[in-house]
Amino acid sequence: xxxxxxxxxxxxxxxxxxxxxxxxxxxxxxxxxxxxxxxxxxxxxxxxxxxxxxxxxxxxxxxxxxxxxxxxxxxxxxxxxxxxxxxxxxxxxxxxxxxxxxxxxxxxxxxxxxxxxxxxxxxxxxxxxxxxxxxxxxxxxxxxxxxxxxxxxxxxxxxxxxxxxxxxxxxxxxxxxxxxxxxxxxxxxxxxxxxxxxxxxxxxxxxxxxxxxxxxxxxxxxxxxxxxxxxxxxxxxxxxxxxxxxxxxxxxxxxxxxxxxxxxxxxxxxxxxxxxxxxxxxxxxxxxxxxxxxxxxxxxxxxxxxxxxxxxxxxxxxxxxxxxxxxxxxxxxxxxxxxxxxxxxxxxxxxxxxxxxxxxxxxxxxxxxxxxxx
Length: 374
Prior knowledge:
By secondary structure, the protein is an alpha+beta fold. The protein is built from eleven helices and five strands, in the order H-H-H-H-H-H-H-H-H-E-H-E-E-H-E-E. It has two domains: 3-172, no CATH class; 244-374, Histidine kinase-like ATPase, C-terminal domain (Heat Shock Protein 90). The chain has helices spanning 11-18, 25-33, 39-61, 71-93, 101-109, 114-135, 137-208, 213-242, 246-259, 279-297, 326-337; strands at residues 263-265, 301-307, 310-315, 341-346, 350-355. The longest helix has 72 residues, at 137-208.
């Protein structure tokens, strides 16, 4: 026996399983109100009820208490333990002892493997029904059908639980597949074009090394810059995968800016809770903005200000005429659909501001005061 299981007693499982003990009220009343039993017999009967109830509760709260090579045999061992006090109750209840089938059905239906348990539970219910109908019709007519109804209800609940688990498992598999697709897309977007350009520029630099050394040196500097940018985006992607929420997005932004040698003035990851219901949207905004800053801005500093309904990203990189690319256009549409506004300005730094409360945009400072590192 594994007594360490008692230290990890599952109170929740015990509570849910204990609900079915209400079915013991009627056989206990039958025992106590039957004058043919002596006080000693009634005491022994109550002891059997107590042992049966405790064993049943332990089978859920401390299932690992019994050691077995597999879950099926473990459930079988618990079933045999339940049979001992139930066999004792046969002397007091006679055929009414079949009320106990409900507990065996629950024991099998709510332990792994659940599908096999449901099949066993259905078998127990059907056999109990046939036994009452064929051998004890008087019990069946006197209310014994309630035992069958109770067992059937347990099976029904187990089937619903199994279907719910299957649905959740499929959703998790779909989420994993979508994440894998997202990773593949990110890696392709980050490295596909960049590595191609790096390869071409490296070949060009090699060809120009002897005849045009200055031009070759310029090409190699561009190779170094492209490599640094790609590394920044890869690090951001890895951080994002480890922590796929707004707090993780803040960490990913810091890693990307740090690798790109851009000084980051960001809120702490713990401040991500300020975003509330806007966290998912702000994650998309921050990701797109930081990607653009790392790739195109040549900035030295990046500031991020965050409130519950406002996200502002500012960089001191190149300004001038700006054209909304496909990424920012899609992001603006997403923000608009969510009921917010996305405003891109230069005052004199480049600022991307998202507001979710519909208020007018306040004056944008050139250097926000928020400055911290995750």
